[in-house]
Write a structure and sequence with these properties.
The complex is a heterodimer of chains A (about 100) and B (about 400).
Chain A: E1 34-38, H1 48-52, E2 58-60, E3 66-68, H2 78-82, E4 88-92
Chain B: E1 2-4, H1 5-15, E2 20-23, H2 30-41, E3 48-51, H3 55-67, E4 72-76, H4 78-94, E5 99-104, H5 118-121, E6 129-132, H6 136-151, E7 159-164, E8 172-174, H7 180-186, H8 210-242, E9 249-252, E10 259-263, H9 267-280, E11 285-290, E12 292-294, H10 298-304, E13 310-315, H11 325-335, E14 342-347, H12 357-375, E15 383-384
Parallel strand pairs in B: 2-3, 2-4, 4-5, 5-7, 6-7, 10-11, 10-13, 13-14, 14-15
Antiparallel strand pairs in B: 1-8, 6-12, 9-11
Helix pairs in contact in B: 1-2, 1-6, 3-4, 9-12
The chains are: A alpha+beta (about 100), B alpha/beta (about 400).
Amino acid sequence: MGAKQKGWKDLELGCVVTEPGSAASTKTGEWRSTRPIRDNTKCIKCGACYIYCPEGCISEDDEGFFEADLYYCKGCGICAHECPRGVIEMVEEEEE
Amino acid sequence: MGLEGSFAIAEAVRMVNADVISAYPITPQTHIVERLAEMIADGELDAEFICVESEHSAMSACVGASAAGARVFTCSAGQGLELMHEVLYIPASMRLPVVAVAANRALSGPLSVWCDHSDAMALRDIGWIQIFAENNQQAFDLTVCAYRMAEDQDVLFPAMVHIDGFYLSHVTEDMELPAEADVADFIPDYEYPFVLDPAKPVSMGCYGPPFIYFEAKMAQNVAFEASKSKILEVWKVFKETFGRSYEPVETYRMEDARTALLTMGSISESAMLAIDELRSEGKAVGLIRLRLWRPFPFAELREAVKNLDCLLVLDRAISYGMGGPVCGEVKAALYDKRQDLAIVSYIAGIGGRDVTLDEFKYMINRGEEKAQLVTLGEELEPEIIGVRE
């Protein structure tokens, strides 16, 4: 959401958005109650989590493993449910 | 020249040279769109007429066209305005200068095509500039003015002119049409601040999550309240150009009046006759007509009632379980400053019921008696005029 939020005087006429793609700066993952934790020792790099993620917030790293971007991840748990090897565990946000 | 109210409005839309018209026919608004469709077909008006399957779509088409920078027009009535209702909030929040005419009609049920202000009262909070006309000349003038108000770069809000269905839409009255060139000068071409431009892309009508929705509404409300000074400017220039004067609150024979009736719309002209007759009987009574309904003219209303002991408010709609909606707003507007003023509520003219001269005179005479009861602290229900037991 950025450090400084806009006040009402900062808005464009009619709340028009003048910066293309600026929705990406909005932190949509802030109301997540559980987050995915991975044990990559079990991961076969199949990409099922990446394919099923409804937010498109999972991406592949240089080694071929997958990670969710918690800026957008809403903690739905579909990745954990779909993972064929039980790599992903959903933990409560308040837990470490 | 003699002109039906609907045709007068169509002439106004033609003279301001609207680009896009989208409307769905509904009694008693039909003649307006019929005439506009005819003008376009005959080449008298160079505009797109977008035929749609509903009023919801008509307003949606107007929103899109206006966002692209077009000068647009639509009109509706009663049930049509209700079907349009959801979309009416959109041009207000997007700051699009859509202009519409509402041919006021009672709401179902029972099904009625006749006039009252139920439809208008259901639109109180849509965020549009809203103005009431009393006769065909005003219907023309105020439609023209609505464009200049809406398109002012410091305003950019939609504007709606309310005309009473049938009383204005279907009645031919003597009126004068200005020269087309004068109207064209009065309503110059305008450029919407965000015209479609691939080099400067914008997103309009976006989603507003909780972290920004409130700010968006605050900005809208502040800008809307500020539009009133521009509305006054438009009427000032209109008077200088065309000679006819409009005010947010207009008064009639108020010079020494201690009692006044407050009305909106065509009923005001009958009320004037009643005031004339009572004046000839020596009674110090006057008439207040609420011309500008939104933004609400608080200061002008307070000024108009400053010498009154008794104000009678005539509503042409019922807010079920609440009373007369205009009376409720008038009381709210005066509460802080004028708690000494006795305000009496009447409801009449529902569903096309005519209000007779005798009924107006009764309301005014009886109102003074009722005002004394109000002053003594009695709580009075709104009095319903002209309904059978």
